Amino acid sequence: MNNASTKKLQQLIWIDFLAGSSTALIGILLHRYAVALTGFPYYLIVIIIAAHILYGSWALSVAVSSLLPLARFRLLAYANVFWGVVSIGLLFCYFAEATWLGRLLLIIQVPIVGGLGWVELRVLNEK
What we know:
Layout: H1 3-38, H2 42-63, H3 70-94, H4 100-124
Helix pairs in contact: 1-2, 1-4, 2-3, 3-4
């Protein structure tokens, strides 16, 4: 892997950490209002917050590693793609009961999270 690709990966790791952690923090701060704001059941809010806490923590552990652990970074990229697919499923499952904000959050999450995973995998596969 060349230096430009390594630099891109390091930047993407920090983007991953900031996105996952900030989403988790917002979820924690607003969890009492999240059901009314999104129309999602409370258990789903808790699952989404937990997933973002785990993801943000994992991204931070990769970001602060002295060496760039490519296998762990690849796992982050696949997790992003997976969460993008999960978001599509959640959109179909909860569209009818979600508020406009809940729908918007899921719709926006698909290209952001899935797209980030796609970009990460492309950078990982650069020669």
